[in-house]
Amino acid sequence: MDETGIRSISIKLKALYTDGFRHNYSDFFPLIVEIAKDDNNYSLDYLSENIEAARAMVEKDYIGGEKEFRGLYRPLSKLSDHINLEIGRYSYYSINEQQVKDLEKRNQTLQRDLRTATDELEKAQKTVSSMQTELIAVLSIFAAIVLAFSGNISFLGNTLSGIKEVCLFKTAFFVLLCGLIIFNSIFLMMYIVGKIIGRNIYARCKSENCTCGEDGAPACCGITRIRKRLPYVFWMNAILLIMVVVDVVLWCLNLNYWRMPF
């Protein structure tokens, strides 16, 4: 506000206070709170600057002999002190209130982080427990695989040692049959391990635009599905079966009577 406006306000205050008016100190704080709200065009800084400018003008007149604002210096000084005191108190209150809000936000953030950390810890504990169970299951199944493999090898060795005088085709038949059983037994164990630990042992289908079993589309037949998703199992079994069939045919036709070289 310019000097003319300050002078006009000072004249109005002189007329008010020289008429016997006394301001009430307790009414200032609610007014300060209303002025400080964001939904109006008032400003505490603007109020403080203007009241100080008016006080300075009246003080200058008071020092010069009170030619213009007689009797206003003391009440205006009290008014200025009271208003500045309430503004300072409100500023202190606002700072503390903001600190409380910041602490509340920080507390909420910490609680949210704590809940997240707790959930992650629970998930980690479940994962560790599951891994322990899976590890025990996998070790047990691998132990079973080793035992089965060792048993099959022992059986194969005993079979071969007991057929010294048997023809080569019969020996080959038993060897191929044992190989077929051992391979599929190991695959069955690996399949069980995959199911227990939640791992997929199937290969990705490389057929273009494959819709097998999707959106109600008819699924491939069993042999085709095995050939696409388990090619190593399919071709290994196919080769062993072909060799068994060829061996049986040759055995039946008596094309060769070689003995085992023992």
From TrEMBL:
Q: Which UniProt keywords apply?
A: Coiled coil, Membrane, Transmembrane, Transmembrane helix
Specify the domain of life of the species encoding this protein: Bacteria
Parts of the chain that traverse the membrane: 135-153, 173-194, 232-258
Coiled-coil segments on the chain, per record:
93-134
Can you say what this protein is called? Uncharacterized protein
Native organism is Lawsonibacter hominis
